[in-house]
Amino acid sequence: MPVRRGGPGPARFRPRRTAPAGTARPRRRGPLAYWRQYLAISPFYLIFAAFSFFPVFYSLYLAFQRWDGMGTMQFVGLQQFRFLWDDPVFWLSIRNTLVIWVLSTVPTLFGALTLATLLHSVRRFKGFYRIALYVPNVTSIVAVAIFFGAVFSNNFGLVNAILGVVGISPVPWLSNPWLIKVVISLLMTWQWTGYNMIIYLAGLQAIPTSIYEAAKMDGAGPIRTFFQITIPIMRPIILFTVIISTINGLQSFSEPQVLFASNAANANLGGPGQAGLTTLLYFYQSAFLNNDYGYGAAIVWAFFVLIIILVAVNWRITTRGRKA
């Protein structure tokens, strides 16, 4: 009797894993064998390619052309970008966009984290509070902008009416350059705080309660627990909201357009002194009001590079010290 190596006892024979005689191995199916499945999902990719993928690269092609939308395109090379570099209105729109982004993003994220922390400790009516705080995000931005324009109107606004009751003179909300940015920032803060609050609340609910109980037993107070336990654990979620808020905050367009009735008949685009002229609003003016599609494409691509740089900077700042 054969002996198994490594110890006493009879050897165990394992059956062969080869197919029986006369049985053919199944052939591997190539990609073309699944053409029915590919055909079923093809409408999405066709629509994406036609209305998203192709326009992106076509706009890059337009950035090197001079075209009014009707006549023949004229290749101008980097001339559009040279003019962009010396365009004072473009740099004004960049400054306006950055100021509005800072004034809206910082209060939005801070308020969202504060509301999420408070809502996490609430025991009753949690569903009602979630819906009430998230409703602004699903409300039409046009309706919200019209409402804010009425509330902050210089002459007949609700805010100035309340200030008049307490003896404060009316404030030029929609004519002062800085107050225009404040109103647009308040609108964006009101719209996006609930969205970020829901994300933070989901992150807080994923933290095990045993960690807080251990910190409480070690004598850590609520403030120390928040900054030394909650914030480090929530760092990936905070990074995500910072990046999303950066992208959304820099793309402000509908807010100043609706607030100041931007159209072809309005030469003062973006409010008095163009204080509310954002970069995307300037692109809209150049491409669709002035029919200069090549210059509009150059504005968009230069702004895209700026967004990438700011996102990378925010990523670096937010992830600093993460390994430590």
From TrEMBL:
Transmembrane segments: 38-64, 98-119, 131-152, 178-204, 225-247, 293-315
Keywords, alphabetical: Cell membrane, Membrane, Transmembrane, Transmembrane helix, Transport
Keyword Electron transport: no
Domain ABC transmembrane type-1 residues, every copy: 94-314
A Pfam family matched in the record: BPD_transp_1
Region annotation (Disordered) ranges: 1-26
Domain of life assignment: Bacteria
Membrane topology: Multi-pass membrane protein
CDD domains (alphabetical): TM_PBP2 (cd06261)
Cellular compartment(s): Cell membrane
InterPro entries in alphabetical order: ABC_transporter_permease (IPR051393), MetI-like (IPR000515), MetI-like_sf (IPR035906)
Family: Belongs to the binding-protein-dependent transport system permease family.
Name of the protein in its database record: Sugar ABC transporter permease
